[in-house]
User: What shape does this take?
Amino acid sequence: MFNKILIANRGEIALRVLRACKELGIRTVAVHSTADADAMHVRLADESVCIGPPKASESYLNIPQIVAACEITGAEAVHPGYGFLSENARFAEIVEAHGVKFIGPSAEHIRIMGDKIEAKRTAQRLGIPVVPGSDGAVETEADAVRMAEEIGYPVLIKASAGGGGRGMKVAKTPDDLLEAYNNARAESKAAFGDDAVYMEKLLITPRHIEVQVFGDGKGGAIHLGERDCSLQRRHQKVWEEANSPALNSEQREKIGAICAKAVADLGYAGAGTIEFLYENGEFYFIEMNTRLQVEHPITEAITRIDLVNEQIRVAAGVGLSVTQADIEFKGHAIECRINAENAATFAPSPGLITYYHPPGGLGVRVDSGVYQGYRIPPYYDSLIGKLIVHGRDRVECLMRLRRCLDEFVVDGIETTIPLFRKLIDNQDIANGMYDIHWLEHFLETKPFD
Ligand code: MV4
Assistant: This one.
């Protein structure tokens, strides 16, 4: 096992990783920008290194500084958390070239999944069901026209270098096609320096369901069920559930087994998430994430498996602590993302937390790096914490979540907690009846007016 791990991240996820390290008896190195000198992950780490000014491009994304911090402290491995350098294949390569283990999959697997055309081709080859669409890139207008006729309108043009919704264009009819196609290419070129695009059938009212997988890097793999992340706003997840209210255990085992087999055949190492759109009982692969995800705690809640512990075990070469047969899905979990934002407008609201009282009790987890007297810096993502609630079933989980939202006090800044108090009173939410567009429609009803 490693003696010392450097955590190349900040905020709640740096703390999350630090906790897993402590439980394994591994010493921790925090890195931080000058804006984060007072952060909880820095306070709790055994050592810390300041790696630059507030701007992420000069600190948390600064590869030479992070590699230098590894060398100075003698860290044997780097955990990248999520965001920042977590899906940067070059970072994984550079770290390993310096004799430091990257806690995550191989640079090659990161690279494949970062190229959305390559990712989809790989998924299909591995037996994962994909959205009907072009076989690879659509290289000319003539090909676009031919493909769209074959697929059937409406179609969606996606950037191969995109992901997370960036650079997507809809063509409802043949009249829209060339504009959508050329705009997608131009925007992709401008945003990513790559104009490769591909085409898919547009699914109208799907859910977003993702399967948590884990590869041992030696041809073995498991799945840990799915998460329903349909409640999003502008491609930002707001509320996630495990299990999905839309699936039964038969469907869960079936898609889970497909994903685990694919990941095993790929020789994948570490945590991964296979994202699907789900409509009319069918799964359609869209992307694979090669990192730990924000919403991983709901999977931990229903499986009682520490995913960061497993990531570290796999990276250290000691293998997973569980087999597929050991994994049971118990009860229901929901995560609410607490952002430092106005709940109605989503305007960022950094600043001083003057009072802080998180909820507690049975089945309640709050992952956050904030504390009373902490000043949220304005430079980073507005996620300041996550409320994760577990119950024996979905009804108990919802009742417990309502209680927790009543208890949660964060003063001095605005947060998204009031939005969750609206959602918990909604009948569609109570029934688990929502798709990827539900939240945006709900917000159009002006719930705070
Ligand atoms: C789609 C789609 C409909 N049809 N693909 C958006 C983010 C990216 N990961 C994939 N996305 C979508 N791909 C086809 N063929 C609709 C979306 C989409 C979406 C997906 C998941 C969660 C929220 C979403 C919101 C709008 C659009």
User: Anything to note?
Assistant: The pocket of MV4 is lined by residues 131, 156, 163-165, 200-203, 208, 232, 235, 277, 286-287, 436 (CB under 6 Å). The first helix runs from residue 11 to 23.
